[in-house]
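Example record

The entry below shows one chain as it appears in the dataset: sequence first, then C-alpha cells.
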Amino acid sequence: MNRTEFVVATAIILFVAFMLGWFAYWLLHKLTRVNSGDLNELDRMAQQLHDAEEAKDEAITYMQQREAELTNQLAQTEAELRAAMEGLREARREAEELRTHIERQNQLL
C-alpha cells in the first residue's frame, strides 16, 4: 500500500467514523427530544400535584383544628360529668340522711 492509498483509506475511515458519530447523535437527539405536548402535559401534572399538596395541607390544618376543638369539648364534657356525678353522690347521701332521719322520727312516734 503506497502513500496515496493510505491517505485515501484513512480519509474514508475518518469519514465513515464521522458519519457514524453524526448518525448516533441524530438518533440520540431524536429519541430524547421532548415535544411541546409532553411539556404541556408535564406542566399540567405539576400544577395538579401542587394543587393536591395545597389541598392536603388545608385538610391537615382543618383536621388539627377540629381535633383541638373536639379535645376541648371532650374535656369540658368530662368535667361536667364529674360535677354531675359528684352532685348525684351528694344528693344520694342527703337522701339517705333524710331517709334515716325520717325513719328515726317515725320510730319515735
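Notes for this example: The two ends are 150 Å apart (CA to CA). The helical segments are 3-32, 36-108.
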